[in-house]
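In this supplementary section we document a worked example of the pipeline. Step one takes a protein sequence of length 97 as its only input; no multiple sequence alignment statistics are reported here. Step two produces a three-dimensional model, which step three serialises into structure tokens for compact storage. The input and output of this example are shown verbatim.
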Amino acid sequence: MVNRNKIFSDLSKFAVDAMSTFSGLKEEIETIVSLRVNKVIKKMNLVKKDEFEVLKKMVQKIIDENENSMKTKKKSSLKIKKSQKKAKTKKKAKKRR
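The serialised model returned by step three reads:
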């Protein structure tokens, strides 16, 4: 009976040691994989998300400004065309007199 208890005690100690070893091994593997993934990402020259968001906002602002300037150009060109038409009609009216 004493031998059985000794064997079970040794087996449980072995199991506990194996579990702690596997736990440490798991952490080590996670660290290695994480480092390799980060290395690959750095080689790919990827942009961080916050940097991308800043750039996206800047580009959207430029697009909006461009659209606004195009609208104002169209409005001013329409005004110029209308004033040119008015000037032409005035000239025609003067010639008729």
